[in-house]
Amino acid sequence: MDAIMNWVSTGNLVDIGLKILGAIAIFIIGRMVAGWIANLTQKAMERSNMDDTLVGFIGAIIRTMLLVLVIIAALGALGVETTSFAALIAAAGLAVGFALEGSLSNFAAGVMILMFRPYKVGDVVSVGGHTGTVDELQIFHTRLITPDNQTVTVPNATITSGSITNLSAQGSLRVDLETKIAHGEDFGRAKQIIMDVMTSTPGVLEDPAPQIVVLDMLQGGVSLGVRPYTTTDDYWGVYHNVLEGVKTAFDANGIAIPAPRTDIVMVKDE
Question: Helices H, strands E: what count in the chain?
Fold first, then answer.
């Protein structure tokens, strides 16, 4: 009992009480400041038109990191040696980084995609060996819906490691088709028939205007490039309908296509 009274009289209890109160004050005030800084950062990112997913994710990371610093400061106010504690956190972070190397690569790639926006939800893209409509854009992966209605999840690191083709970026998409006419056919008449088919096909845009170009001079005829423009939503409908329309129109107007031809050379023995 005398030892306890001596300990109290020397001011140890008062010092501990003050340290506890200081640590509590640091924690409460620090948590408020951390929340204020995180909210301020999120608002700044929102004003810069950054993606909402990225804004929320970065805001949560900043808030967590600041809260860890506040806890370390509060422990330091209690007299706890924080140097070893900080080293432990750093070592744990390094171990987690090695364990999640692939996920961190996808995260970094997702941040780049969300910041630079090479595509957005609803765009038709060709990435990572897949072509489809972007259905979901997350921090670790991108989900596509392919033309045959399959769902493909592509890791973001795979996307940024290769080329990204955004088929929706220009607002219109050219459909590249090919047809052939025989050498004896009226070239101008055949072109007009093809143009009439394109302009009357639903989904074909007036601007840019459809085009017909000569691709090659063949042995039995001429190869023509048929190039209507359309939107990504109407691409496959235009693709198939224009081909069918050209076939039907050629048959109705008696336009012949090159027939398979084989030249046989007969050599007379002397």
Answer: 8, 10
Main-chain phi, psi angles of 51, to 5 degrees? -60, 140
pLDDT (tens digit, 9 = 90+) per residue, 158-169? Answer: 998 889 999 888
Host domain of residue 177: 173-253
Q: Where are the beta strands (DSSP E) in 128-257?
A: 130-137, 141-145, 151-155, 165-166, 173-174, 177-182, 211-217, 221-227, 229-230
Taking only the tens place, the pLDDT of each residue in 25-49 is 777 887 888 778 777 777 776 676 6
Asked whether residue 126 falls in the same domain as residue 190, the answer is no
Name which of 114, 157, 158, 115 is nearest 136 in CA terms.
114
- Structural domain count of the chain: 3
Asked whether residue 196 falls in the same domain as residue 241, the answer is: yes
With respect to residue 263, please indicate whether it lies within any of the assigned structural domains. no
